[in-house]
Design goal:
The chain has about 400 residues and is an alpha+beta fold. It has helices at about 1-20, 30, 40-45, 55-65, 85, 95-105, 110-115, 150-165, 170-180, 180-190, 200-235, 380-395; strands spanning about 75-80, 115-125, 135-145, 245-255, 265-280, 285-295, 310-320, 330-340, 345, 350-360, 365-370, 375-380. Helices cover about 40% and strands about 30% of the residues. It is elongated, with a radius of gyration of 32 Å.
Length: about 400
């Protein structure tokens, strides 16, 4: 009876832990990947605050609002844009065919140009609204873009087919509409009425042709609306997925303008990221390099404390393997950090193994084990908590 009570108590504790499914050892590899917005990353603006205009008009509106009708430099503002999509020109790189062709014919140049993103950001230093500004500039581009999956290509071709539909009416549709149009039938009968004068017949022939043009326009409008509805439904259902090898590169710099003296800007931070790897149904592999340099500049007053100069080079990778039913996952990540703080080398490394099993109903059984940068070895996960609880309850009285 006592054993049963202990067992029930352990299971209750285990289920509580599973619902929380928290891990103390968190994966860091995602934090070191090439950022989506290099400039905002360097100046410290959240990714969800970055604006992404898709045409010149929306870009100018965004800049105008951020600068107060171009009267001042923006504060805490970030914008990323893709030049090819902002300035499409003749549309050769933004057409549906251009989106499909690179994945089928491996046209590297088109992939790079289509994926090139220019990034800019402005932020107030230390929350100071008076005049200390950090400006970031960067770019991101795919050196090798993973090919779209077969399902994505089918969906894109279907969308392309919808867009290529002819809005013009067929002969049968025109004839059927004319037969049911009272005005057209009236004008047609009058135009062929031999009892009328030639001038009256001519007048009704002109009215008949005008009514026919109106019928054609009405049919085209109706078809256009139907095609628009098809396009909207297909676009909503479209989910772009890529599987295979990829390489992304990103880089940027940040310049500090203390007291907004824009004649004496100081380069304070720079970063360069290379992220490569491959994605597949059963595994994801990532290899990365990140070089980050940060120079602490003297502040305009004693209130701005100076920190340490940082020169970090991170080299690492991760491998995630999942079961066929995707309920079990196992990942390993390792990072070597060549670090220099104020000309003192403090090289270190990190190695972490994470595993999880999905029991259903959003309950995960997790286990983590690894060594962090501070040389401390840690194990965590709700599996560890449950085992500790079980072992503790199993001990006899002293």
């Amino acid at each position: 009876m006592r054993t049963s009570f202990h067992y029930m108590f352990v299971m209750a504790g285990l289920l509580i832990g599973l619902s929380a499914s928290a891990q103390e050892i968190k994966e860091e590899i995602d934090l070191l990947k090439a950022p989506a917005s290099p400039a905002s990353n360097l100046v410290g603006i959240a990714v969800d605050e970055v604006e992404h205009p898709t045409d010149v008009t929306s870009l100018m509106v965004s800049i105008r609002q951020a600068t107060g009708d171009f009267g001042a430099l923006p504060a805490n503002y970030a914008v990323d844009f893709a030049p090819v999509w902002l300035f499409p020109g003749n549309g050769k790189l933004t057409s549906m065919s251009a989106l499909l062709e690179p994945h089928e014919k491996n046209r590297w140049g088109k992939d790079v140009l289509q994926g090139l993103v220019v990034s800019t950001a402005f932020a107030n230093l230390n929350g100071d609204l008076e005049g200390n500004t950090k400006a970031g500039f960067g770019m991101k581009l795919p050196l090798l873009k993973a090919p779209a999956t077969a399902g994505t290509l089918v969906a894109l071709r279907s969308l392309k087919g919808i867009l290529a539909k002819d809005v013009g009416a067929t002969v049968a549709e025109i004839a059927a509409t004319e037969a049911n149009d009272v005005d057209f039938q009236t004008y047609n009968a009058k135009a062929n009425d031999a009892t009328l004068s030639a001038a009256e017949q001519k007048k009704f022939r002109a009215l008949r042709e005008a009514q026919k043009r109106f019928i054609l326009e009405r049919l085209a409008t109706s078809k256009h609306a139907a095609i628009e509805a098809e396009v909207e439904a297909a676009a909503k259902a479209l989910k772009v997925e890529r599987k295979g090898p990829f390489i992304d590169m990103a880089g940027g710099v940040a310049v500090d303008f203390l007291e907004r003296d824009f004649n004496q800007g100081e380069l304070s931070k720079g970063g360069l990221w290379f992220t490569g790897g491959s994605t597949a149904p059963r595994f994801d592999a990532v290899i990365l390099t990140r070089w980050l340099v940060e120079k602490q500049l003297p502040g305009p007053s004693d209130s701005l404390a100076t920190g340490e100069d940082v020169n970090d080079l991170d080299i690492g990778g991760s491998l995630l393997v999942r079961s066929k039913n995707e309920r079990f996952t196992l990942s390993v990540e390792g990072i070597i950090r060549f670090q220099q703080l104020d000309e003192e080398n403090t090289d270190t490394w990190r190695l972490v193994c994470n595993s999880s099993y999905n029991l259903g109903n959003n309950n995960l059984l997790t286990f983590s084990f690894g060594r962090n940068y501070d040389s401390v070895t840690t194990q965590s996960g709700n599996l560890v908590a449950a085992l500790n609880l079980l072992l503790g309850l199993g001990k006899g009285p002293k």
